[in-house]
Amino acid sequence: MIADANAELVTWLCRVHLSEAGRLRVHQLLDKGIDWEALLRRSVGWDVDALVLSNLRTKFAGSMPAEFGLQFHALERARRTAAIAMTLKGVAVYRRLDAVVPTIVLKGPAVGVRAYGDPSLRRFGDVDFLVAEKHAGRARDFLLSEGFQSSYPARRESSLVRGGHALEFDNGSIKIDLHSRLLSKYLGVDLEHLGIWENSATIICAGQSIRALAVEHEVLFLCAHGAKHEWSNAMWISDLANIAATLTPSQAERILDIASELHCERLLWLGLHLAHDIFHLDLAAFDGTRAPDAPTAALVSKARERIGMGPSPARPVGPRRDDGSLEALGFWLRSRERLVDRATCVTRLIVETVASDGPRFAPRLVTRALRLARRLSA
Questions:
Q1: Which of these, 194, 199, 197, lies nearest to 180 by C-alpha position?
Q2: pTM (two decimals)
Q3: What contacts 22, CB < 8 A, 6 or more positions away?
């Protein structure tokens, strides 16, 4: 349940396709009276302001006071202009890189198209590309030849690639994260063996063809990525809700099968229940009539708190991107249903860090692992 009328209105206005019941609820909320400044703050804080303002303008314009209508339209135009400019730059780099090595566009503009039908409606700060591990060196050389500068220590490149971590590049105009795996190896969710390259999809973005993940793989990837970052950005939940709403029953069934095969059903249901609870996703395609189990419900509650949708009116915390934090790692481990996957994750992280930074860090890492184990067993 969503107690705050302004927050609830934002959640409905993040839906691309509103049901009749959804439209009726929006009109009910608007009729009750809205704090428009609070609505704007919530939308900006969640990185969904372009989407919310677009839906207000195109579907509910008559309900907005004139003074806010002008302000909101100007802000929407500015946000969408910035997003499409970034999209065009990213697609241009993608087209040139894809001519050198096969490349998949992750998140950002690809999700903007798939979730909202328009990349200008989704904000993103960098563009993520996926290449095969064997092509990472050629992709790096291409970006350097294009005037990009690497943002990571050169001595760590091989360990970053081996661990499935992104190589970051910047040319002063656009940032590129170059991935050789969808998820870091220590996380223990291997989507690669599902044939992500053979099953990749072609979508149209800013008038150009780009390669994206198959929608089934996209949903699972978004669920894992969100859990990795504690679902600390409401926009990621909105992405998932809008993409999942387009799935056919057979696609939903395939996603459930893959999640079972990879032992990441809790990761999937955590994302789906968040999308349902906050952005009103109908879970019928997933046969989602069941309530979440206790561990999943606790994670849903924690994620809601992080975006300011918990029982207290506390301010939302910004997106967490520090994958190495104890809190983020603990959230991820709780998102895995099998003890063996949790243990493997911690072990891999320790081994990887020791190999990368040297054995002198081993005592600190073991201590950190023990602290985490005590915390999870509490």
A1: 197
A2: 0.91
A3: 12, 15, 280
